[in-house]
Each structure stands twice: as structure tokens, then as C-alpha cells.
Amino acid sequence: MRQHSLSLWLGGVLLAVPVFAANAAEFSLQQTLAAAEHYSAELSANRNQSNALSAMADSARELPDPKLKFGIENVPIEGNNSHRFTREGMTMQRIGIMQDYVSEEKRDRKAETILAQSASSAAKAEVIRAELLRTTAQAWLDLALSEKVLATAQKLVAETERQVAVQKATVASGSTPASSVVDIRMTLLDMQDKVTLAQRDVVLAQTRLLRLTGENIDSVSGNLPRYQRLPADPAVLEQGVSQHPEVIEAAREADVAKARSAQSAVAAKPNVGVEVYYAHRADDYDDMAGVMFTVDMPLFKSQRQDKDLAADMSRSMEANDQLAIANRERVALVRTLVAQYQAAQTLWLRQQDQILPLQRQRLSLIEAQYRSGQSTLSDLLNARRTLLDTELNAHNAEKTVAETWAAIRYLTPQENNPS
């Protein structure tokens, strides 16, 4: 029943994944990372945002568009000349052009703020890219190591299946009881459960890669990266915290807050508007022309612009505090990941170099004893089950090492050189 339910579950997973068998391919780690970058909609959206901000910075340095003003002034609404345009000397048809002049310093400060936002957006792109590379590398390594687990489980199952035929022959000859066939079949079913779980892990890794790259990657190619050792010395990793994209993004956010403070500092500088107009009056009256000026009057600066400046300065100090927090958090993260890697590496090497050889040696001894009649079939089956469990534990420990290595290796986005 357990094997049947696991098979049904795996069948559901397989049906949930689009089947593109004709397009299935093997990808190296470099190819997979490049495909993920090309496929990422989040990176594309961020690039478009940066381009938009750069364009806005260029326009921010320009003066506002001039305004065309036209209309009729001083039309009488009472008396004998009511609603007539030519009887009253003050009535005129007026047309003019008005231009607002914003100081160059204010325009520059606004452009600098937008450029700081653009730099912050670019820093965010590196955060997205680092996370994308990290997740993709972990998924690729998961697929590569899950394939190893599956091959190991299938090999042990095949060996046990051969034992079933031998055992049936011995039962037919009367040299062993019939219950031995049942025992070996139960052991085989338990091992097949492990194969089913290993197949599930392969399918899930392929699904993750499909989501990240848009490619139907059914297997991996090329050499695995050297995850058996840290990408760099722990001290070097900790010194590189300032280059982490999250820290750089926090620094760019601090630059944005500083630029906004600088923009608020000149907000009280008055804008000047200049209007040149021409006014046409009735035939019996002379036409007129004139120039008009408008100037902002920041009479209540302490209640308006100064308040905005104080708020922006507080935000600037907050951004600096956030930068300090980001530095501390990244240092703590590096130390945590290094500790996790070192522990996982120790467990993996112990499994691989000590426990697994002992289990293989134990199985060889029990097989020899079984052939000579000194061990029971139950002992042999138990030794094979234990060896399979140990193999799977070793592979799972290797997966943890590789996953933690990728988390450390891609703390900063780099060129697609996975070694």
C-alpha cells in the first residue's frame, strides 16, 4: 500500500509538469545560469525602471514648457455697452507667452535625486541577480546530486531483484523456507520506496529549473563545481561584505536620502515667471503690450520648506542607520553560512570516508557468511537496507554541503565561472 501510494504521488507530480520530451536537454552550470539571467522577468523589469529614471534625470534639468495665454479682458456686463467688445476702451483681446524660470541649482538637485534613484535601482538589480544565481545554482546542484542518489538506489534495488530469482530457486529445491521469498520481497518494496522518493527529487529539481530558466533541463552536463571546499577563506569572505549587493543597495538608498535632503535645502528659492503679452483694443483705441513678472514668496518657510528639510534629513540619518544594520547582518550571515558549511562538510566526510566504507565492508562479510551458511537471509537483507540508507544519508549530506556552498559562492553576483 505504501509503495502504491508513493507511486501515485509521483505520477501526479509528473503529470503536473509540462512534457516537452523533444526539447529536453542537458545543461552545464554556466549554461543554466546564463539561461536564468536571460529568462528573468524581474531583472528585465528592473532594467526598464533604471532606463526610465535615467530619462527622467535628463528632463529634470530642463526648464518647464512655456505657456500660451490668450483671451478677452474687461468686457462690460452692464450699461449701454454691455457684452460689446468694441465700445469700451478697457476691453482688449490679449495674447501672450509665459515662461517659468526654475533656478539651475534646483533643477540640478532634482536631477541628482533621480540619478541617485537610478543608481539605487541598478543596485537592486544586483540583489535580484545574486538571488537568482544562488537559487539557480542550488537547483542545478540539486538535480545533479539527485541523479546520483537515484542511480545508487536503482543499483541496490537491481542487486536485490537478482537475489529474488535466486531465492525462488532455493525455495523450489526445498533448501530454504518459502517465507524467505516474502522477506526479500518486503525488503525490495522498501528499497523501491527509496527509488520512488529519489525520482521525486529529480522531478522537483527539474521543475525548479524550468521555473527559473524556462528550459526543460532533464539532466546536467559538465563538471560539478568544487563545492568540497569553501569558495574563499572565511576571513576573506567576511572582508568582502562591503561588496555584497544588499549592502551596496543600502548605500545607494542612503545616497537617495542625502540627495533628497539637498533638494529640500534649496526648495525655498523662489521661481520666477515672465510673461510677454500683446493686447488689441477697438479701432478707436491704441493697442497695448506689456511684460509681467511673478515671483514666489516663501513667507512661511519655517512652517513649510524647513519642515520638509528636517523630515528629509531625518530620513537620511535613518538610511545611514539601515546601512549599518545591513553591514552587521551580512557579517552575521557570512559567519552563519560558514559554520553551517563546515558542520555539513564534517558530517558528509564522516559519512563518506568512515561510515559508508564500514557498511560496505559489513555487507561483504555478511554476504560471504551467507554463502557459507553462517548468516541468515534476514541478516543479509538488513545489511543491504542499512547500506542503502547510509548511501542515501551520505548523498543527502553532500546535497547540504553543495547547497550551502552555492549560498556562499553567490553572496555576490559574479561572472558565470562556477568554480
TrEMBL record:
Is Nucleotide-binding given among the entry's keywords? no
Q: Which InterPro entries match?
A: MdtP/NodT-like (IPR010131), OMP_efflux (IPR003423)
Q: Which residues form a coiled coil?
A: none
Q: How does it sit in the membrane?
A: Lipid-anchor
The superkingdom listed in its UniProt entry is Bacteria
Gene3D superfamilies tied to this protein: Outer membrane efflux proteins (OEP)
Cellular localisation: Cell outer membrane
Annotated signal sequence is 1-21
Q: Which Pfam families match?
A: OEP (PF02321)
Say where the protein is mainly found: membrane
Keyword list (alphabetical) reads:
Signal
Which family does the record assign?
Belongs to the outer membrane factor (OMF) (TC 1.B.17) family.
Name of the protein in question: TolC family protein
This protein's species is: Buttiauxella selenatireducens
Organism taxonomic ancestry: Bacteria, Pseudomonadati, Pseudomonadota, Gammaproteobacteria, Enterobacterales
